[in-house]
Design goal:
By secondary structure, the protein is an all-alpha fold. It contains five helices and no strands.
Amino acid sequence: MMKTLDDFMADLDSRGFKLDDEAIGFIYFGRKYTGASDQIVKTAIEATLKIQKRFDSSFYMSVLEELVKLNQPSRKDMINHLKAKGMIL
């Protein structure tokens, strides 16, 4: 079963990735603004944290918008697309 965004956020917290209320609010704002699925949002968060080593709201939003343009790809497709754009994950 696929984790919801809320489960994913709780899992990040339990692993030591402490996001402040502003970052969490921005994550949910980005999801609503773009109409992204939980899987796309989770992949955008993961890419942001791996590449930036912290949560960067503008970077997250650009990744999220890029992934939404792919029109419901699989996680593997999203990762491959980001790698093709030069992002090292």
